[in-house]
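Listing 4. Sequential folding, example run.
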Amino acid sequence: MACAKTSALNSGKGMLVVIDPAVKDHDFLAARVLGGAQVIVLKAEQDAIAQITSALCVPASEHTSPFNSIHIIVPGSPGVLHFSNGTFSLKTLKQYVNQLQTWFATGDRATDTQPLEPQVLLYGRQVGAGQSGTELIDTLSWLTGAVVIAAKNGERWPSAADQSVELAFPPSVQQSYQGTFSKQ
């Protein structure tokens, strides 16, 4: 896949926020991410994983991704991300292995402002719940080389008590947003 030059490579915080248009009030969320984050609203008629991979694409001369975390906001259910253009789960993951392996470059990632390990946060409701959720998280982590954190147990916001997790939205948005990120 050829990489197009894009302003996504200039993210101040190293955060890429990906929002599927099927998410309730996706425009509200896109306008309220943390300052410095790069936001893309997916095109419903195009493959979601291909769009994310394209946004993350780094010229070979740069060796490391400018993104340290990817926040994927999409309707979900245990072990499944329900993108507008189709589902992403263990059943469909095989077709994306090569793309997922490129999401984070293998160069020296440590900087003064970014943690050493990249993160992928999945905001789909209960995506990380149950055995299928755990398997999806583990496989995605293995393929991307990132710590993967997903919403579980009825949550809509990813969380991990023992992880340093910075969500893409300030607490005021988390409290006021009425959507659930679940498959309707």
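-- end of first protein; second protein begins --
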Amino acid sequence: MSIPEAAVRAVEENLWAVHRDFARVPGAEIHDERDLLWYTAPSKNSWLNGASRSSLDDTAADAAVERVVAAIHGLGRNLMWHVGPSSTPADLSRRLEARGFEGSVDRSMVLEVADLTHSPTDPRFSVSRVRTRPDLLDWLHAWDLAIEIEPRGDQHPWLEPFAHLALPRETPTELLLGRLGGEPVSTALAFVGGGAVGLYGVGTAPDRRGHGFGGAITAAAIDWGRARGEGFAILHATPMGESVYRRLGFQVVGELEQWVLAAPE
């Protein structure tokens, strides 16, 4: 199936909308400038601090990078710079690497939600929406397991920001938690904006992989977006996750680079 150009643009525009929505976190600063969107929130984590929608010219790019780095590192926070198909200058990635950023590449994928294909999984597996602080702590616990680090509990850098972004009833963000017999094992974050429902934070604990839980929670997130009126879903897949999303019907439409620079010790 041919993917409409508007849906392809949504792979970046949905992410930019996520970043603008950080304004709902107390103490956050969103700088939606003509040639750059950058943001910082009260957390050291790079997901909540960084830059995107870069349309910088050659002569301004290095100064803009230094300005953002100085502002965010001045607060003692790590930062992430997203580089997508529309980012300029064309050599922005090279400039970030020269500045000391470390990069990774995800595959940007799009699905028309009407084409979602998914098979049933273990009947003991259930997906619910995160509605309370204990639910959020379970979501963060499962996420830490999925990325294979020691669970951080109430010290998690996402705890307070996500309490403002996802717990209120009427927000564009929905956290979904997959449980197996009551045990938190899978996560997903869905965000409506920029012409699609965007899927982020999809993960499953290593000892629970291979049973279709990642596909099931992704499908639940897509269904949530469909109920909100979105016709397309977008995501940025790691090499591990790409095969899962292809089985659901997603198509690759490009790449998204993520460049991280840790705050000085």
